[in-house]
Amino acid sequence: MLSSTEVVETTTATVVADRELGHKLLNQYIVYEQIGKGMHGRVRRGRDTTTDEEVAIKIVDRVSKHRGLPSSLRASPSMINTTEKGIRREIAIMKKCHHKHVVRLREVIDDKLKKKIFLVLEYMKGGEVKWRTNAREPVLTVEQARSIFRGVVLGLDYLHYQGIIHRDIKPANLLMDADGNVKISDFGVSHFSYALRLAAVGDADEETKARALMNDHELAKTAGSPAFYAPELCYQGNDLSALTGSGSTGDLATGAGSRRVHDLDQLFQKKPTITKAIDVWALGVTLYCLLFGRTPFDGANQFVLYQIIPREDYEIPGTMGSDVLPTNEGEGLEVVALLARLMEKDPAKRITLNEVKRVPWVLRGIEDPERWLEENRPDRKAAVLVSATEAESAITQTESTGFPNTSFQAPELFHIPSQHASILPTFSSRPSIQRFCYLHLHELEHGT
Questions:
Q1: Residue ranges for the binding site for ATP?
Q2: Three-state SS at 292
Q3: pTM higher than 0.90, yes or no?
Q4: N or C: which end of the chain has fewer CB within 10 A?
Q5: CA–CA separation, 162 and 169 (whole Å)
């Protein structure tokens, strides 16, 4: 069994299809049904035959499959490099993350000869956080929403301390384990900020500081889900009306009632700096979703959202949670005040995660708040640093050189199709990472 921090790196991806059992085998993993899908890959449930543990297997295309682009462009060196760069970044970041509220990476299976890269993750049996009904009503009680929010705050606080800006915090990227604990997932657009990491650990030499400043220009590029974008990510200069051809925001709001329109010239007198505060805003949008069953800002497309988010206020429904608690009294007023600080349009005035942890509504129900705060300090975890070299080498840069030399008999639970009976399965001599060495990866790549 793997330790809590070990990440196995495998450079040979081999597959056998067991038509009798109806499943495929990826190395030592039995591959089952699809349990998730996103812009960065799809996820299948699996089982490690060496430990009998359930896992999640994220299948990522090495070459981008952007719809609408000609195949020649999708396969161009620049597009391939961009796609692989994103995969490398995700792997390098996940290798460094070890926290009870962050999904753990167990193994990277990266065969340069193949079209797919496989990330083996801990299996989150509870799946995505379920936060609304088909009628856009909340399914969580206020207490359940608070518990989930509290876990995300701790996980995000750890990431920020480590210099990692997630950039895509939303309910779909929050997963529940079998015990009901929430964990942050999907680091496909995450960013490692040297500047943020150095701010957490202290001083550094001038060369390192300069590299940190150069590194963070990537943050200005929009990534993630538009409905969760912070106002500073939506800023396109003073004339946002050019995005939709409309000079009025009055017809852009989709909620009931009127909304106050903010003066962007006053809010952003110059191009705003993009910082970890974008995650805090997305955290606020996420809390709104958990409590009210809908997003605070709606638009027909992302360009409309670019106008609405920085210019207009969101609405607070009369009740929150599936237990229908009023928002105009008691606990409801505390929640409204917290949302206002999380979704403060000026990033310089936005609440910090350190402050969020001390908000009375967040601490409610904790027997010893001071002890809880002390036990969950992010600096109690070892500091990490994702170097440029680590990011570049996170996936294989050269072709696979062949198969392991030591052979073992295949476990009896595997039915070998008769047409492949002459092909002997080969394993690594390390029992903890035994590997099937088989052909037919295309069956998993194209049929899975």
A1: 58
A2: helix
A3: no
A4: N
A5: 16
Q: Are residues 94 and 167 in the same domain?
A: no
Residue 33 host element (H or E): strand 29-38
Per-residue pLDDT at 279: 98
Structure tokens at 330: 């008691």
Please indicate, yes or no, whether residues 275 and 310 belong to a single structural domain of this protein: yes
What span, in angstroms and rounded, lies between the C-alpha atoms of 311 and 259? 9
What CATH number is associated with residue 420?
3.30.200.20
Mean pLDDT, contiguous 10-residue spans, the chain (448 residues): 72 88 92 84 94 96 62 45 71 89 96 93 96 96 99 98 94 96 93 74 51 50 81 70 35 41 64 91 99 96 93 97 98 98 97 98 98 94 57 46 34 38 37 36 47
**Residue 347 belongs to what domain range?**
127-365
- pLDDT tens per residue across span 172-217: 999 999 999 999 999 988 888 877 766 766 655 544 544 444 455 5
Q: Which two tokens stand for residue 197?
A: 């990491």
* 377 in a structural domain: no
323 labelled catalytic: no
101 Cβ contact list (under 8 Å, min separation 6): 151, 152, 154, 155, 158, 181, 182, 183, 184
- C-alpha–C-alpha distance, residues 169 and 289, integer Å: 12
**In sequence order, what are the residues at sequence separation of 6 or more whose Cβ sits closer than 8 angstroms to the Cβ of residue 232?**
268, 272, 273, 274, 277, 278, 310, 347
Q: One of 48, 110, 157, 168 is an active-site residue; which one?
A: 168
What's the half-sphere exposure (Cβ side, CA atoms, 13 Å) at 3?
Answer: 5
Amino acid identity of residue 303, one-letter, is: F
| pLDDT on residue 288 | 99
Separation CA 64–CA 383 (nearest Å): 33
DSSP 102: B
Closest residue by Cα to residue 419 from 13, 3, 16: 16
Q: How far apart are CA 2 and CA 433, in angstroms?
A: 9
Torsion of CA 361, 365, 367, 373, to 10 degrees: -40
* Sign for the pseudo-dihedral over CA of 423, 429, 431, 437: negative
Long-range contacts of 344-350 (CB under 8 A, 24+ apart): 345/231, 345/262, 345/267, 345/310, 346/267, 347/230, 347/231, 347/232, 347/272, 347/273, 347/275, 347/277, 347/278, 347/281, 350/277, 350/280, 350/281
Number of structural domains (the chain) is 2
Per DSSP (E only), the strands in 49-170 are 53-61, 105-110, 116-122, 127-128, 164-165
Model pLDDT, residue 317: 98
Dihedral over Cα of 42, 230, 167, 219: its sign:
positive
| Pair of tokens at residue 398 | 């050269």
